[in-house]
Amino acid sequence: MYGYIKGLIKEVECNYIIIDNHDIGYLIYKLEETYTIYTYNQVREDEFSLYGFKNKEELDLFLKLISVKGLGPKMALPMLATGSITGIIDAIDRENILYLKKFPKIGDKVARQIILDLKGKLNGNQLSLLTSKQNDELTDALVALGYKQADIKKVIKSINEELPIEEQIKEALKLLLR
Asked: What DSSP string describes 47-116?
């Protein structure tokens, strides 16, 4: 199993990237524009798959999701790609079946199994780590737009961290433009 791969992104397709590391091209299912990708390696009789994630928290949640009976990597990956990590954890803790069923191939039975297997096993420390990661992501986005760190720190405290990052950026921009 690989912990991470560092290299040059050589090819970007809609559902995978190829990273060149010492003249070996690793095909990783998931489009992320980063050079360090945390990975999960699945070896089966007929398949050798490598799944990539932008941070350890995303990988940890993925590993917990694929531990659920009836939920494999190809079902868990779209959950992480289309939903927020905090949203998924919150839905599991609150037993929100409707939220979980919005993901592709997740029906009532699988949603209930996810809740049964993972409720209470996703600790609050993970959420606080994710919150700080989201703040870092928001700060990076605002710095890229030309705002100063001091101004960003003042505004970031009043942003609802539960919002998707796009909404957080919109809210921060509104506050910064005042």
From this structure: EEEEEEESSHHHHHHHHHHHTSTT--HHHHHHHHHHS-HHHHHHHHHTT-HHHHHTSTT--HHHHHHHHH
